[in-house]
Amino acid sequence: MKYDFAAIEKKWQDKWDEAGIFRASDDHTKPKFYALVEFPYPSGAGMHVGHIKAYSGLEVISRKRRMQGYNVLFPIGFDAYGLPTENYAIKTGTHPRIVTDRNIAKFTSQLKRVGFSFDWSRVVDTTDEGYYKWTQWIFRKMFDAGLVFRATTLVNYCPHCKVVLSNEDSQGGKCDICHSEIVQKSKDVWYLRITAYADKLLEGLEKVDYLPNIKLMQQNWIGRSEGAFANFALTGCDESLRIYTTRPDTMFGVTFMVIAPEHPIIEKYRDRIANIDALDAYREECAKKTEFERTQLVKDKTGVRIEGIAAVNPANGREIPIYISDYVMMGYGTGAIMAVPAHDERDYDFAKKFGIEIIEVIKGGDIAKEAYTGDGEMVNSGFLNGIQTKKEAIAKMLEYLEEKGVGERGVQYKMKDWAFNRQRYWGEPIPIVHCPKCGMVGVPYEELPLKLPPVENFEPGEGGESPLAKIESFVNCTCPKCGGPARRETDTMPQWAGSSWYFLRYCDPHNENELASMDALKYWMPVDWYNGGMEHVTRHMIYSRFWHRFLYDIGAVPCEEPYAKRTAQGLILGPDGDKMSKSKGNVVDPNDVVDVYGADVLRVYVLFMGDYASAAPWSESSVKGCKRFLDRVAALNEIVSGRENPKLEVMFHKTVKKVTEDIDEMKFNTAIAALMTLLNEITDAGSLTKEQLMTFVKLLNPFAPHLTEEIWESLGGHGFLAETAWPEWDEAKTVDDEIEIAVQISGKLKGTILIPKDISKDDAIAAAKADEKIAGLLAGKQIVKEIYVPGKIVNIVAK
RNA sequence: GCGGGUGUGGCGGAAUUGGCAGACGCGCAAGAUUCAGGUUCUUGUGGGGGCAACUUCGUGAAGGUUCAAGUCCUUUCACCCGCACCA
Questions:
Q1: CA of A388: how far to CAs of A151, A315, A383, A692, in Å?
Q2: Cis peptide before A449 (omega within 30 of 0)
Q3: Assuming Cys at both sites, which of A216, A275, A517, A652 could form a disulfide with A307, CB separation 3.0 to 4.6 Å?
Q4: Shortest CA distance to A236 belongs to which of A265, A272, A205, A270?
Q5: Residues 412-471 of A with CB under 7 A from strand B
Q6: Is A679 within 8 Å of A634 (Cβ atoms)?
């Protein structure tokens, strides 16, 4: 039976809104469940079916948990600062505030149309003054704690967006926002010292329940490596060259050293270097290359030997040459390496090209052909000779270096400090004042929020400075410390700032005195379950874990880690199997689906289409299948009868169990399939009781809340279905009294028999042998072995 | 190159972790309803063989362990994702 979904959905959305049944309660005595989904960036394009899938997972879990008696916090908000809005504002001359408000209104109405059970009383907007006041407050606290600094470095710069990007935002040499080629630019920029938290972020992973691949990605991103620092004395000067290595065991095999082209020692000893012109020429060439060209394209080793300075190997006192080459990066370790061509592929390539000696120090490979990186017996290594394992050799060498005072154990991370700024308008102003006398001074806490001033022209300056720099009334200020004239910082924070703590604000969104009260935080935090996209696993998640851990360290939040559990949904691909994109024209608009099939169908389909964590293509005809399912459910009213069909009882207990367990494991597709199977059984049976239909709609309610509320009401159910208790099952009733099991002879399936469920092994085997067909096949054969797996199978091995 | 993952019908995908492979849905075929199209309902639907009961092959490929393998082991191929000259 077709039902009027448009009318039903509107009716119940209004009723829910009016009654406020999805508001999290302030009753802190109830068990809590905090479910978090990544709040959207309110773009002009509106919502995408991907958003629907991303939110539907925890939506279903939240609805079920409410019915199970939890006080559920399932909030939503808007991550509204960012470049697309600003670019749109530049193009159309509309203020970003107006664009943002318009987009938020659009998203809100779309989300409500789908019937998500968000707590709309706790909406957070990162561009709201009451919100970004606390974003600035956290920044100020970090500034006070010495975690904020400025440095002139080569930065990733997008000439199109005219902004500096973090390493995370410029992966693959492309701008994450507009995808144009990144160039390297020397610039004075803000950094957050996230590397100071590298170990804490790594250790924190041991305490949380993230999907294994998510944990691994974060571990790789932080990239901790253990090794040693060692100082190689330089000939002709009092200084030594410091290197980092993970293989101190190979030190007797060092035949040269390599430093990064930007290494400061070149400038320092310019006068002593005989071939400084050649070095300068090489360095200039390197500077022209983008980071992308340097790391991705150029696998051929290039370099120049430094003449006039040499190094001394602290292991054996040998004098060795030093080269500059761009295969050594200034940004990792010390920007200098000891090269062991026999046991490192890169050093091997370099040595081959420049004709440098290759000394084997570990047996096991053929160094005439290639570098050997495996384990083996130490040779040509003085006091290390004869040692069999890498571990032991490393320990011995470290001992030696420490004794002589030329090296020590060390740890390095791949993760770099976080470039924290944008030279654009639509972001949180950085609350810092530059005073000619006092230097950098934080804007006093009582002056926060430092409001974004009204601007007419959002175009960034040609030199890459923020539009704020053009506003004299904003820039000119007095120093909070000495009262003298000073200039205000005009950079704004990057997009990731506002999203680094939004989950805390949800706990207490209207608090004017704190970012959230400790009381609320103690009750709600940590987030019990956070679901989002894989693309945010390394950036947003690492950043927010860092902020949260910092807030813990200053006593502002009660727990170390913000997220107890993290999962990720798979992409929805276009009907053609490609990633949905405007340019391919394969984007599905959720509004269109709701118009034609209704919100319940959309919700059921995005969860039924496949494994929640995997990518799956959109299929219009499968959507129709879900529509058919709900139409058939809507018709169940017609076959409600007073008499109970005993066949259905076991089926109901089984389904309650299956749906309950599957939802908790995010196996939504099989939960829905189980409900479809039950529906088929009901149809076969021809009737069901009112109580059974009530149970059915409870199970379906988290997936299709509108239709099920309607059926509940028509059955005379009390109150909202969404507020009733989740069904229970009786384990003993989940199995039929009589079960069908398979009978195999020598492992080959030969038939099936019906046996009572609690039958003994002997009886089961006897029953199998009594089967006419089986008996015939066994005739004249000798039975070797008899196997009975309860409830599964009988296998008779016969010769 | 390193790390992780995935390969099951025409398609999306199931399979209590070693126990009847293909649940559920789509699609397709036949029939019913309908003036007709659509909708809805019924039945069938992995491949080969057979009128049939049945039989045989079958989870990317090849080998192995086991009474029993999609699932465990070895080798191998293809695709996807992340990182990438990280010393």
A1: 46, 19, 13, 71
A2: yes
A3: A275
A4: A272
A5: 412, 414
A6: no
Three-class DSSP category at A193: coil
Strand B neighbours among A 357-396, CB < 7 A: none
A459-479: pLDDT as tens digits = 777 767 788 988 999 999 999
- Reference A753, options A772, A776, A734; nearest CA is A772
DSSP 8-state symbol, A355 = T
**Which residues, 6 or more positions from A701, have their beta carbon under 8 angstroms from its beta carbon?**
A63, A67, A708, A709, A721, A722
**Distances in whole angstroms, Cα of residue A410 to Cα of each of A405, A444, A581:** 14, 39, 46
- At a CB cut-off of 8 Å and minimum separation 6, what does A368 contact? none
SS3 label, residue A9: helix
> Residue A605, CA: closest nucleotide via C1'?
B25
Query: With b meaning 16 or more CB within 10 Å and e meaning fewer, what string describes A216-241?
Result: ebbeebbeeeebbbbbbbbeeeeeeb
* Bases of chain B with protein Cβ within 7 A: 3-5, 11-16, 19-21, 23-27, 39-42, 55-56, 67-69, 81-87
Q: What are phi and psi of A363, to 5 degrees?
A: -75, 155
Q: Give the residue from A177, A74, A82 showing the smallest Cα distance to A127.
A: A82
Q: Are A212 and A533 in contact (CB under 8 A)?
A: no
Span A182-206, pLDDT tens digits: 777 777 889 999 999 999 999 999 9
For residue A282, say whether its CB is under 7 Å from any atom of strand B: no
Rounded, the Å distance between the CA of A750 and C1' of B49 is 19
C-alpha R_g of chain A: 33
ipTM for the predicted complex comes to: 0.95
The answer to whether residues A533 and A613 touch, using CB atoms and an 8 Å cutoff, is no
Q: Return the closest nucleotide (C1') to the Cα of A672.
A: B24
CA A683 to C1' B36 (Å) is 30
C-beta atoms surrounding A762 within 10 Å: 10
Q: What is the 3-state secondary structure (H, E, C) of A592-659?
A: HHHHHHCHHHHHHHHHHCCCCCCCEECCHHHHHHHHHHHHHHHCHHHHECCCCCHHHHHHHHHHHHHH
Q: Which two tokens stand for residue A34?
A: 């905090």
Residue A349: which H helix or E strand, with range?
helix A345-354
Please identify residues in chain A, positions 206-265, with a C-beta within 7 angstroms of any atom of strand B: 212-213, 216-217, 220-221, 223, 225, 227, 244-247, 260
Query: Helices A96-114 & A5-19, crossing angle to 10 degrees?
Result: 110
CB A89 within 8 Å of CB A95: yes
Rounded distance, CA A418 to CA A416, Å? 6
* Residue ranges of E strands in A432-556: 432-435, 439-442, 476-478, 485-488, 529-532
Distances (CA, A) of A259 to A166, A268, A339: 24, 14, 10
Calculate the angstrom distance between C1' of B56 and CA of A493. Answer: 69
Chain A residues 744 to 773 whose Cβ lies within 7 Å of strand B are 744, 746-750, 752
The torsion angle over the Cα atoms of residues A573, A578, A579 and A581, rounded to 10 degrees, is -110
Q: What average pLDDT values come out for chain A (799 residues) when binned by 10 residues?
A: 87 96 93 97 92 97 97 98 88 92 96 97 97 98 96 77 70 69 77 94 94 92 93 89 95 95 91 92 81 60 92 94 92 93 93 94 89 90 93 94 93 91 92 95 95 84 80 93 94 94 98 96 97 93 97 98 96 88 86 95 95 92 94 92 85 95 95 96 91 96 97 95 96 85 86 84 85 80 86 85
Q: Beta strand pairing status for A485-488 and A476-478? A: antiparallel
In angstroms, the CA A228 to CA A65 distance is 51
Give the single-character DSSP code of A363.
B
